[in-house]
Amino acid sequence: MKKQPLxxxxxxxxxxxxxxxxxxxxxxxxxxxxxxxxxEIFSLIGLNGSGKTTAIKLILGLIHPDTGKVKIFxxxxxxxxxxxxxxxxxxxxxxxRNFSPVExxxxxxxLSDIPKDKLKKRIHAVLNYxxxxxxxxxxxxxxxxxxxxxxxxxxxxxxxxxxLILDEPMGGLDPRGIIEIRDHMKKLKxxxxxxxxxxxxxxxxxxxxxxxxxxxxxxxxxxxEPHSRLEDEFLSIISEHEKNSK
Length: 246
Ligand SMILES: Nc1ncnc2c1ncn2[C@@H]1O[C@H](COP(=O)(O)OP(=O)(O)OP(=O)(O)O)[C@@H](O)[C@H]1O
Ligand SMILES: [Mg+2]
Hints:
Layout: E1 6-19, E2 22-36, E3 41-45, H1 52-60, E4 67-72, E5 75-76, H2 80-84, E6 86-89, H3 101-111, H4 116-129, H5 145-157, E7 163-167, H6 175-190, E8 194-199, H7 202-208, E9 211-216, E10 219-224, H8 230-244
Parallel strand pairs: 3-8, 3-9, 6-7, 7-8
Antiparallel strand pairs: 1-2, 1-4, 4-5, 9-10
């Protein structure tokens, strides 16, 4: 039987910041537990500052938790097997503007230890998949936000990972770009992939996700299935929580 793509147990994170002689504490994540099933599209929804990016950075091992652990396909998230099976689209993909998509992907592929003969084919496949063919040798300084987002997705897909972690994949995109990303996610699911993505565009989440977790002030308040009134449910879960915690 295939192992679960992602298991998160009791994950917590507090940021400490020095501020005019004092230390500020932000409890960004508080004891989060989650289990993803194979081949599902799972969305983490929450208001700005609810802890979505923090959760994603912890899952990827980019920052260290105060408590908790993360397993990817049965192995600790920091293991090389977990890293090989995971693709990541950051909230704001950053690329040096003096390079072209092919140059960026070649560099990324060599960092990810993709063999040279395979890398050429993969670059061709992901450029085609994200409709960047035709712009593959253009410098990124002429790229729109949507094209950069597509390059971010191409990079996340380069090693053909089983699990995709996408932080606000629809962020900053126009309606057509949003539809494209949604279609990509659906196609990736059809190809057997599992997707975990964060968003605060609830109307989009309900069109693509199989399950949704509501994150608020670092806590998962509810895991639910999408429906046409998800936005209302989301807002009422949050206001109910605020009322009860007064
Ligand atoms: N590096 C950091 N240092 C200090 N505080 C941080 C840091 N990163 C995030 N925070 C704080 O942690 C909390 C959660 O932030 P996070 O970026 O995880 O939220 P988010 O849900 O991704 O928000 P958004 O929807 O705006 O992307 C916020 O209060 C934020 O200000
Ligand atoms: Mg974020």
